[in-house]
Structure prediction request, 260 residues.
Amino acid sequence: MERYSKNRQAILECLRSTKIHPTAGWILDQLRPAYPSLNLATVYRNLIRLKDDGLIRSMGDIAGEEHFDGDIQPHAHVICTCCGKIADIPLTESIINLMESAGRQTGFEILASQLTGLCPSCSGSENRKE
Amino acid sequence: MERYSKNRQAILECLRSTKIHPTAGWILDQLRPAYPSLNLATVYRNLIRLKDDGLIRSMGDIAGEEHFDGDIQPHAHVICTCCGKIADIPLTESIINLMESAGRQTGFEILASQLTGLCPSCSGSENRKE
DNA sequence: ATGACTGCAAAGACTTTGCATCTTT
DNA sequence: AAAGATGCAAAGTCTTTGCAGTCAT
Prediction:
């Protein structure tokens, strides 16, 4: 069953050591120098595995690509729906309360809060894109 | 420039008349009976157009597909990261406050709040998926 | 040895694009 | 007639899968 894998370990560490919320491709790019034979399919497979094992979390698809997060503590993000930029926001008590009350209301087990909108750079341009 | 299009109008009305948050494919399925020649590419093109025009809003990719929302008022969703199920939650004052304060903190123009987690059906099974 | 893990290439799923044709103005 | 909108098919992205070879136990 569970078996050690240098690749998987590297992927997990890569994810834990960055503050950005990377995609499979970004992780591959990071690890390629040290693991020249590493393959994108392997990255995907291990990300799925790590996610299923609860060691990482997926942020879902953002701007067409799945983003992952090495921080599995409940926390919050702000995401630009235009360019995909992601910012962390501190997990205030009001957010925690919100997550809890929404969970009670809906029966969901709320794990993360993603506020979406337009980042400063997109806010001006995208509103009237053209 | 802007020109009337029966297809675009139908897509917009379809989106406004449903409470689910559909994908391009779902919209096509709905409209096919009345618009037999309607094409998926046309649906996509018009969704992009309507989104750029600010008449609809994208919820981003959920479970691999982009979902759209005919309700452009700021509001909140709960999304299951396992099966993609979407639930609306009433826009309470605490959520509004949260969105505003996050906006101030990050400089983003916050438009929606998406709480993610596991729905009741996935909560039991997915946690220990296997 | 055995079964998990990997690399590679092929296949999938959803979305976008090119182009000739049809519509709206 | 002119410019936008559409249908169809081809091309693009990102992701998953099949398979034979490799590695950890």
